[in-house]
């Protein structure tokens, strides 16, 4: 109801292979729906639980609200052992056991640590 009306058709194979998607514009959360009919090209109507239907049926979808939280630092541990980094250099190799952040509305690969001295 709140999206773009699709007036074309698709097959069960399209559904099985994940080619059909529902997209929310993110403006509102809650219940949304769309109407559809089903045909094999030979028979009028389609069966739902053994009952012949000739009118469109409704697919209901609940759209989860987007979370607009700030990123969270979940691990912040100081390294313990100085490591040889080669060429007479020593330091620490950071890992997610020492430093890790998450964000409920972003992929972790899009989080940036900004060094401020």
Short description:
This protein has 117 residues and is mainly β. The chain contains one helix and eight strands; from the N terminus they run αββββββββ.
Architecture overview:
The protein has 117 residues and is mainly beta. It folds into two domains: 12-63, no CATH class; 72-110, no CATH class. It contains one helix and eight strands. The chain has one helix spanning 12-16; strands at residues 30-36, 46-48, 51-53, 57-63, 72-76, 83-86, 89-91, 99-102. The protein has a two-stranded antiparallel ribbon with strand order 1-4. Strands 2-3 form a two-stranded antiparallel sheet. The longest helix is centred in the first third of the chain and has 5 residues, at 12-16. The chain is elongated, with a radius of gyration of 26 Å. It starts with 11 loop residues before the first helix and ends in a 15-residue tail after the last strand. The model has no long low-confidence stretch (mean pLDDT 84). Pfam families: Cadherin_3. This is Laminin G domain-containing protein.
